[in-house]
Amino acid sequence: MAQQTFRWKLFPFSLSGRAKQWYSLSVRSVEGSWEALREKIYLTFFPIPKVASLRCEILAFEQREKESLGAAWAHFTKLLASCLELGIQEPVLLQHFYLGLNFESTKFLDCSSRGSFAHLTPGEGRIALNKILENTPYTRIYDEFPNEAPDEPI
User: Fold this and answer.
1) Last residue of a domain, one of 10, 28, 45
2) Gap between the Cα atoms of 6 and 74, Å rounded
C-alpha cells in the first residue's frame, strides 16, 4: 500500500505537455485509485488499435536493408519501448527478432552465441544483443543515435 501511495504522489512529476493536462482533468474522476488511473492512461494514450498495430509490427519485424545487427536491435527495442504492455512473452519477442534478421546477421548472432542464439535463455540473449549494440558504431541509417538498451525485461 505504501508503494502505491508513493507512486501516486510522484507520478504527476513524470508528466509533461498533453499528458500533464490530461492528468489534471482526469485525476478527480478516479478518486485516488492507482489501478483506475492506470486503466484510463492505457485507454487514452495506448488505445487497443494502436497496441494491436504495434504488436503486429513487432511480430512481423524485418531487418532493414543495410541495417547492422546492432542497429536492428536498437530499432526493435525502440518498437518495444513505444508501448507499455504488449502481452507478448520475452522468448517469443526474441524469436521474432531473430526470425526477422537477414542471413548474415543470424550467422553472426549464432557464432557470437557459441553455436545457436535459439539455445540461449532470454536473459542471455538480451545480454548478447545489448553487448552487440554497445559495440555498434552510429550509422547514417537512423536520423539520431540509438538509445541505450533498456535494463528492464522485455
Assistant:
1) 45
2) 32
Q: What confidence tens digit (pLDDT) does each residue in 70-89 have?
A: 999 999 999 988 876 777 89
Residue 143 clears pLDDT 50, i.e. is over it: no
Question: Assign residue 139 a region: left if phi > 0, alpha if psi is -120 to 50, beta otherwise?
Answer: beta
What is the pTM for the complete model shown?
0.67
What is the spatial distance between Cα 1 and Cα 12, in angstroms, rounded to a whole number? 18
- The C-alpha cell 536492428 sits at 72
Pinpoint the alpha helices (H) of the chain. Answer: 2-10, 17-26, 34-45, 48-59, 69-81, 90-99, 103-112, 122-134
> 79 and 17 in one domain?
no
Structural domains counted in the chain: 2
